[in-house]
């Protein structure tokens, strides 16, 4: 995981440059207006500050589509170049118009970084620590503000502060960012897969995960290219099979599924949960009844569906750890190490014949040539096998190889306790012919006691008693995106990992077509856009800009300004130091948020931090409306402001961008992120320029009262509409959105 952490940290430097610029211009503008004599030109003065905001808004409108076309990494490189050039032009700036041009270039760089860095981190991070890594931009942005305030404060102490030097220093860290983007940052593996560049994607994944065997995750990335499609939820009881259970016995039972180990006698039999097991608590039964439950009419069923995944954790040290080796506690953010699995001789012989592949002349990628699923002979009705490199996944009960941390390891895990598998399914058409196809299955273990009293699961040829161990697993079942017509004719158990743009694909449009506006109207994408745009709007109107604007005045009333003046500081230097101290207070809170993001989760953090924001704003309203002594007023206001900042950066600060980078399908992620980011910047402009007008019309108490109401609305919105996405692979998240949205639409139609 070290590579993923370092890459996320390097990418987040783009946000550090944004924070650096925001703080620098706040101090430099005090000296700029003196040199250019702008005291009587408030419009020009405002444009100097706002031009970067305008540039960010403009570039955001096209950044998503361009990033889907060129890739994430080139856009980050362009962002660093724009930062660097803007710094050089600001150093030169012979007049205010050149300065405005430089600020516009700077805004372009900011817009690209703020929009694409969260996407890049989400697409490269392991699911278990994706929230932590996606909090880096918030941390580096605040760190950049703090360093910048310290620099500007130091320069303000000189007899003649040089504002050009203040702004031009931006070129130094932007040059570092450029070097890292060129020589250190890889391209997003998900974007590479979407363009059919499978060899490169595999190499990047191996670097990011620190292991050779990435077959399961490679298959996951390809499966994530689809938008929409029919998805169903099933639930299986999985128990150990014995030598008495033959393949013919399994194929004779329509509701039986067999999971194979790599050697003879090491296999498991799975049976779908039916009505007679209605007491079983699982994902499928929860989802099947949620729409009809009373009291759930207001809460989005999608929230309940996501929540069911996180309700229970599996027991370790048994067959559960064998079948689901990568499912650790959601409260462990450590890495899931996966071993490099050797081909065993038996399966190597069975798989010796050539499989369809991308046909590249110099392709040496064994993972891409060999099947993800072994062609071990079984019945053709329903067979399910985990994806592996060249052979079946190691399902040895009690003998699975261990990693250095003692955790079980395997190649089928795709993160967060989810496993990817396939099954072959046939159905009879109206004309009597049989049609077959592959089904993709995302398996997730339910936490069921190792022994269930009073229940016996009967399998052909063997009974699994109540004292025996078994696994209960929920499954998202849908049409596989990746399989070849060549293999379909041969009737294998599972698909081969072939190049997605190769001629052997049955449905090449699933993996070759680019994003389209039509995809945005797919129910799952529409639902995700509602969540993403809604939370971005509410974040901007929650009061952060107003509190930032008012903070120096509050701290000055608290006596900080008088104290600093007694130390010999000018009012300008004192204001800069106060702002720097305010930023410093945010950093410990962001560090706490980093840890909690993958433990408590995004939804939980929002629901628990928003009430503190509401209370802080209400106290500020009371302090502004009620007459009290200056000491009491200053003390209460200072505590409220500090609490607001600390809890904002723990929840409502980073989480909207994190959620927006997680909930959209790969094919339309760039466009959807651009829509959400555009909402962010437009909201920022509205709030920034409406604040002075509101202060004059309704006063400070009225402004903070409005912000408090927005925070209440935000809490209700999060409670009803925002699901918990911690620890889940991006492709599983989008599958849930598609499934939940279609279930809601079907319920409305009925």
Provide a concise account of the structure shown.
It is built from 30 helices and ten strands. With 750 residues, the protein is of the alpha+beta class.
Structure description:
Among the domains are: 1-185, Growth Hormone, Chain: A, CATH 1.20.1250.20; 228-243 and 255-272 and 438-445 and 470-482, no CATH class; 522-749, Growth Hormone, Chain: A. The strands form two sheets. Strands 1, 2, 3, 4, 5, 6, 7 and 10 form an eight-stranded antiparallel beta sheet that branches. It has a two-stranded antiparallel sheet with strand order 8-9. The protein has helices at 2-11, 13-35, 42-70, 72-92, 96-124, 130-133, 136-156, 163-168, 171-183, 189-194, 198-209, 215-223, 247-252, 283-290, 301-310, 319-323, 345-350, 366-369, 485-490, 509-512, 523-540, 544-557, 560-566, 571-597, 602-625, 630-650, 655-660, 669-697, 699-721, 730-749, and strands spanning 231-240, 257-260, 267-272, 382-386, 413-415, 418-428, 434-446, 457-459, 462-464, 471-479. The chain has 750 residues and is α+β, with helices and mostly antiparallel strands. It starts with a helix and ends with a helix. Strand 6 (418-428) and strand 7 (434-446) form a beta hairpin. Residues 7-726 form the Major facilitator superfamily (MFS) profile domain. InterPro entries: MFS_dom (IPR020846), MFS_sugar_transport-like (IPR005828), MFS_trans_sf (IPR036259), Myo-inositol_Transporter (IPR050814), Sugar/inositol_transpt (IPR003663), Sugar_transporter_CS (IPR005829). The chain crosses the membrane at residues 43-62, 74-92, 98-121, 133-157, 163-185, 571-593, 605-626, 632-659, 671-691, 697-720. Keywords: Membrane, Phosphoprotein, Sugar transport, Transmembrane, Transmembrane helix, Transport, Vacuole.
């Amino acid at each position: 995981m070290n590579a993923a952490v370092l890459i996320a940290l390097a990418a987040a430097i783009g946000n550090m440059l944004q924070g650096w610029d925001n703080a620098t211009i706040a101090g430099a503008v005090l000296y700029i207006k003196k040199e250019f004599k702008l005291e009587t030109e408030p419009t020009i003065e405002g444009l100097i500050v706002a031009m970067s905001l305008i540039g960010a808004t403009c570039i955001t409108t096209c950044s998503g589509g361009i990033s889907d076309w060129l890739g994430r990494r080139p856009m980050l490189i362009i962002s660093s170049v724009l930062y660097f050039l803007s710094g050089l032009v600001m150093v030169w700036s012979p007049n205010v118009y050149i300065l405005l041009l430089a600020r516009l270039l700077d805004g372009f760089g900011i817009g690209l970084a703020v929009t694409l860095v969260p996407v890049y981190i989400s697409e490269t991070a392991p699911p278990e620590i994706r929230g932590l890594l996606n909090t880096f931009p918030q941390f580096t942005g605040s760190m950049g503000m703090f360093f910048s305030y310290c620099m500007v404060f130091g320069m303000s102490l000189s007899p003649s502060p040089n504002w050009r030097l203040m702004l031009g220093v931006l070129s130094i860290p932007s040059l570092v960012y450029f070097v890292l983007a060129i020589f250190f940052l890889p391209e997003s593996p998900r974007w590479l897969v979407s363009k059919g560049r499978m060899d490169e994607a595999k190499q990047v994944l191996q670097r990011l995960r620190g292991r050779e065997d990435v077959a399961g995750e490679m298959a996951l990335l390809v499966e994530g290219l689809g938008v929409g499609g029919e998805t169903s939820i099933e639930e299986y009881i999985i128990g150990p099979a014995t030598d008495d259970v033959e393949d013919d016995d399994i194929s004779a039972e329509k509701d039986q599924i067999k999971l194979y180990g790599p050697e003879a006698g090491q296999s498991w039999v799975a049976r779908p949960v039916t009505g007679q097991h209605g007491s079983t608590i699982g994902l499928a039964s929860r989802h099947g009844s949620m729409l009809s439950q009373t009291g759930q009419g207001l809460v989005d069923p999608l929230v309940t569906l996501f929540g069911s995944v996180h309700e229970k954790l599996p027991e370790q040290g048994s067959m559960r750890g064998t079948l689901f080796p990568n499912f650790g506690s959601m409260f462990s953010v450590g890495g899931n190490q996966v071993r490099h699995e050797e081909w065993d001789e038996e399966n190597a012989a069975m798989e010796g014949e050539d499989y369809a592949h991308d046909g590249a002349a110099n392709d040496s990628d064994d993972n891409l040539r060999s099947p993800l699923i072994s062609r071990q002979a079984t019945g053709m009705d329903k067979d399910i096998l985990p994806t592996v490199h060249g052979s079946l996944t190691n399902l040895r009960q009690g003998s699975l190889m261990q990693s250095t941390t003692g955790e079980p390891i395997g190649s089928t895990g795709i993160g967060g306790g989810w496993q990817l598998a396939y099954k072959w399914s046939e159905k009879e058409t109206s004309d009597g012919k049989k049609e077959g196809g592959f089904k993709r299955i995302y398996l997730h273990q339910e936490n069921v006691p190792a022994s269930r009293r009073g229940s016996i699961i009967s399998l052909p040829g063997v009974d699994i008693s109540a004292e025996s161990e078994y696994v209960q697993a929920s499954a998202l079942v849908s049409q596989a995106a990746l399989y070849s017509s060549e293999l379909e004719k041969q009737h294998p158990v599972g698909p081969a990992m072939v190049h997605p743009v190769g001629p052997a694909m049955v449905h090449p449009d699933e993996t070759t077509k680019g994003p389209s506006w039509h995809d945005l109207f797919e129910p799952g994408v529409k639902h995700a856009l509602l969540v993403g745009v809604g939370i971005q709007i509410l974040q901007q109107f929650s009061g952060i800009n107003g509190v930032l604007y008012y903070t120096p005045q509050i701290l000055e009333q608290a006596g900080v300004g008088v104290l600093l003046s007694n130390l010999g500081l000018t009012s300008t230097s004192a204001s800069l130091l106060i702002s720097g101290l305010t930023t410093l207070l945010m950093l410990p809170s962001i560090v706490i948020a980093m840890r909690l993001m993958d433990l408590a989760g995004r939804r939980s953090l929002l629901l628990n931090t928003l009430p503190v924001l509401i209370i802080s704003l209400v106290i500020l309203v009371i302090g502004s409306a009620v007459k009290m002594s200056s000491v009491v007023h200053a003390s209460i206001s200072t505590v409220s402001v500090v609490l607001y900042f600390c809890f904002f950066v723990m929840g409502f600060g980073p989480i909207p961008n994190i959620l927006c980078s997680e909930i959209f399908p790969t094919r339309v992620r760039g466009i959807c992120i651009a829509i959400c980011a555009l909402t962010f910047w437009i909201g920022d402009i509205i709030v920034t320029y409406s604040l002075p007008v509101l202060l004059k019309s309704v006063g400070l108490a009225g402004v903070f009262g409005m912000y408090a109401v927005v925070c209440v609305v935000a809490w209700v919105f999060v409670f009803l509409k925002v699901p918990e996405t911690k620890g889940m692979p991006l492709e599983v998240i989008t599958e849930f959105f598609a499934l939940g949205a279609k279930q809601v639409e079907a319920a409305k139609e009925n």
